[in-house]
Design goal:
By secondary structure, the chain is an alpha+beta fold. It has one domain: DD-peptidase/beta-lactamase superfamily (Beta-lactamase). It contains 12 helices and 11 strands. The strands form 3 sheets. It has a 6-stranded antiparallel β-sheet with strand order 3-2-1-10-9-8, with helices on both faces. It has a 3-stranded antiparallel β-sheet with strand order 4-7-5. Helix 3 runs antiparallel to helix 12 and helix 4 packs across helix 11. The longest helix has 19 residues. The protein starts with a helix and ends with a helix.
């Protein structure tokens, strides 16, 4: 056993993580994608859009390992919390058009929940957008049925109603998926129709994104990459998560085009861009059973890099981040 592996075991760092980190950096992104499969990742898709160069795709491993279907760069993927960027952009547009105000309280916007969410009269839309509400995260509820997630958003919300807040509103930051579930409900009410349709009308069609969908039910599941998680002994693709901010399905290229437009001002007008900058971030990650995604823009090399990995559990999130960071290093070295 290598001495470094013994040291790692003594300080509780899994050897597989150290190997992924210490392996010499390859010359190409494709080599790095190939290497990623050596670290218990079932499949990987990487999309790179760097200024002055044509978009590039890199894949390794499987789209479906049971049937030996190779990773497909054009396949659909559950992008999980990257969905929040689309909701934040949609909310920005509605605030800019004065359909909403950042200072509107949850009690005002959803009065039916005023007595069921602590501090509803003090929690503003801004706090929901910025994860500063103190509302518990439905994902942390020990009773959440991961093997059969509810297909009714209200049943997901029910898990946190009448619970105590985690902290006083706006006193600190704590990421909570419930914030964006509530924003989805607010948008539905203000619009008089689904926020998913608004996102399609104002964002997806504007950018000609024909391979992005708000819900898994909108697509042929055969087109979705299979997902694998260490807690399950089978493909978890059919687990359907519908909560706003967690439910979208897209291709790596479509996510990359959206992220580029969000960053370069071609999606939002000047006033909207200023507003968005004050309320949310310009990158995101996503995690659901069987699906890990990273979407970031790197200003120093003017590059959008999207990475999808269809494995979760154990050490795979850390390994996925290591692989992503090494890909960006390869890009920087070649720039």
């Amino acid at each position: 056993m290598p001495i470094i592996a013994i040291i790692c075991s003594l300080i509780f760092i899994p050897w597989i993580i150290v190997r992924a980190w210490l392996t010499p950096l390859p010359d190409t992104i494709q080599e790095q994608a190939n290497n990623a499969i050596n670290y218990k990742l079932d499949g990987i898709i990487v999309y790179v859009d760097q200024s002055g160069k044509p978009p590039a795709f890199y894949t390794a491993g499987w789209k479906n390992k049971e049937n030996k279907v190779s990773a497909d760069p054009q396949a659909l993927f559950k992008i999980a919390s990257i969905s929040k960027l689309y909701i934040a952009a949609a909310t920005t547009k509605l605030i800019n058009s004065q359909s909403l105000s950042l200072n509107d309280t949850l009690a005002k916007l959803l009065p039916e929940l005023a007595n069921r969410i602590e501090n509803a009269n003090r929690i503003s839309l801004r706090m929901l957008l910025q994860h500063r509400s103190g509302i518990p995260d439905w994902i942390d509820d020990p009773e959440f049925p991961w093997d059969k997630p509810p297909t009714d958003v209200d049943k997901v919300l029910q898990l946190v109603l009448d619970e105590h807040s985690k902290f006083k509103p706006d006193s600190r930051y704590k990421y909570s998926n419930t914030n964006y579930l509530l924003i989805g409900k607010i948008l539905d009410k203000i619009l008089g129709y689904s926020h998913q349709q608004y996102i399609k009308n104002e964002i997806l069609e504007h950018l000609s994104l024909t391979h992005t969908f708000s819900l898994m039910s909108e697509v042929d599941t055969a087109d979705i990459v299979s997902g694998y998680d260490s807690h399950y002994d089978k493909d978890v693709k059919m687990l359907d998560f519908v909560s706003p901010g967690s439910s979208m399905v897209s291709t790596a290229q479509d996510v990359g085009i959206f992220l580029r437009a969000l960053n370069d001002g071609s999606l939002l007008n000047k006033e909207e861009q200023t507003l968005f900058s004050s309320i949310y971030m310009y990158e995101h990650t996503g995690l659901l059973p069987g699906y890990q995604s990273i979407a970031r823009y790197h200003k120093d090399i003017d590059a959008v890099v999207i990475q999808f990995v269809n494995t979760s559990g154990e050490n795979t999130w850390t390994i996925s981040e290591i692989v992503y960071n090494r890909i960006v290093k390869i890009l920087r070295r070649k720039t």
